[in-house]
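<instruction>
Derive structure tokens from the sequence
<data>
Labelled lines for chain and fold
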Amino acid sequence: MYPFVTVYCRTIILTVNLRKSYKIGERMQVKREVVRKRLTDASIALTVKEVFEQSSCFVFNEGELVTFDGEVLTRAPSPFNDEITGAVRASDFLKMLQRFPDDEVDISTRGNELIIKGRRRRAGITLMSEILLPYDQVPRPGTMKKVNKDLQESLLQCARVCGQDETAPKTTHVHIAKDRVEATDSYRVLQYTLSTGFPGSVLLHASSVFAICKQNLVKVGVDKNEGWCHFQTDDKMIISAIVSREKYYDKEMIDEFFEVEGETVSLPKNLVEILDRASVMDTPSSSIGDWESQVTLSFSEGQLKVSSRKDGGWFRETKRIKYDGPDIVFTIHPLFLKELIKKTYRVIISKERMLAVIDGLRFVASLEAQEKDD
């Protein structure tokens, strides 16, 4: 009997001690939508496949909300100020916030859990107290300058021209110089002329550009010696992206590619509508956005054919145009082409290349002999 009582007593003591170990943090009331947006913005630097520990987590530390996937890092004011410290699985936390109908929720900690409480509902998510995300290695920005209003659009459109062959890094990066932004996949070249605010030549991976351009950029800072480029958004979030040290193509080589003499052709006025239809059978988008998106334009005497294809089907539409040159074909990103024809419907076509020139923008694409359909 005594051993039983002893064990029983120890059990009671142990239970009491366990309960005492749960420290309940101060409860705060927050606007759910404000928190959700802050977390969604920071999601651009999350990765599904963990590059290192907590790279798929929201990290709250010293009043900051941090995400880092190894190439892009975000730092923003924490929606919980400095009341919460730790890391939570991003997907679970964000989904839970999205599904709570409450306008305001209570946030607190209990032991190793982050507690979300609404009017008639509550949820707990594991809160990792130890910060393992190695984001301290990324330098903080120094002096930052106001972003040129046209910089973000030029970065995004150039990223859509980049290739995906990682063994050819010049073709997977956007090149930013003092006076221009440009990109190529070896078959197409896009170049914007503008004052970028960058002190020198910088190469940003297209996937990083897609992530960065999801936000409204207002300031930029570059420290090439540290190997990082920094942007500030209108919500005070700092986005840092790693830059490549690869040397880009010589300017003279790029300029030569734009030397095209040929026939001036007017594209159809309803080409945007055709592209919208073609997008239904476009190549499925990849995890980094719409990088894989492509449509094919085929020119033959008196007509233009727009086509697209994916595993589940295909699309083709023919339009009559004034053209009597050779049969040629090329691929292009549909969203970029839509932006291009907002500025001009006129292009120059030679036997080898198609050129479009507008104030501050040049685009050229290599052409191939067109294969006849069955």
About this structure: The mean pLDDT is 87. The chain has three domains: 21-137, 146-249, 258-369.
